[in-house]
Amino acid sequence: MKELPQISTTEWQVMKVLWIKAPLTANEVITEIEGVTTWKPKTVKTLLGRLVKKRAIAFNKDGRAYVYYPLVAEDECVKAESHSFLEKVFSGALNVMFANFLEEQKLSKEEIDELKRILDQKNS
Amino acid sequence: MKELPQISTTEWQVMKVLWIKAPLTANEVITEIEGVTTWKPKTVKTLLGRLVKKRAIAFNKDGRAYVYYPLVAEDECVKAESHSFLEKVFSGALNVMFANFLEEQKLSKEEIDELKRILDQKNS
DNA sequence: CCTCTAAGATTACAAGTGTAGTATTAAAAT
DNA sequence: ATTTTAATACTACACTTGTAATCTTAGAGG
Hints:
The structure is a homodimer. By secondary structure, the first copy, chain A, is mainly alpha-helical. Chain A folds into 2 domains: about 10-70, Orthogonal Bundle (Arc Repressor Mutant, subunit A), CATH 1.10.10.10; about 75-124, Penicillinase repressor fold. The first copy, chain A, has helices at about 10-20, 25-35, 40-55, 75-90, 95-105, 110-124; strands at about 25, 55-60, 65-70. Chain A has a 3-stranded antiparallel sheet. In chain A, a hairpin with a 2-residue loop joins strand 2 (about 55-60) and strand 3. Chain A is elongated and about 55 Å long. The model of chain A has no long low-confidence stretch (mean pLDDT about 90). The structure holds a DNA duplex.
């Protein structure tokens, strides 16, 4: 189990496209990101650079261009973020968190049924 | 519906004691916090000052001492934080988030049953 | 009244973040 | 071979955050 770097909110958006579509060149990442944000290309490059420095991603050279890929696993990062959030907001109380989300959010019948299926599986 | 200030991780700890026990003097907050962290008293005072500046809390004077109380509601803040987290990590996909938490975390049978009860209520 | 204490106010300071712009340089085009 | 392009590298810059220390001042104690 490795040390996970701290990944900021904007960096998460970059990681998410890399987790789904890596390997990607900087320009491909920029194209993907432009669908979702209003960031300038240079901003995305900065984020890629910072993620490299943090060792969250790495690249291979293809001529003058870099082709990026993740070094950290998505589920590890998701787990770490989730833990932080749960601690920060709910002091670790998972059931309180669930109850809260279920209160606030509207779920379709299908989603509710899916969650109940998951719970049933856990129960056995 | 008011604008919620940005509340940092450390500031959340202070807010949590105020939400539970306000009104509290700075020293009372410090005492509460000392049970949970290793922060120096001055650190807590800084956080109280920042929260006042952000208008997350306010105070009344009692002689030379300030007595603090929250200006923002806990459930509003919880909701906002939860939304940010859900967006950042799960791109807003609530069911994915649930499934993930249920995968990772261990829940007692009682907790699972409680969640199912909540789900049943939502379903009707 | 004067002194000391302790409360709040101000200052510190490096690292991280959001959001790019400018500089350098290698490769593509002509 | 020289010019142009465009990719990466460096620089910017204000704000937030974590983590306090020092300064100022109003009461508490004598």
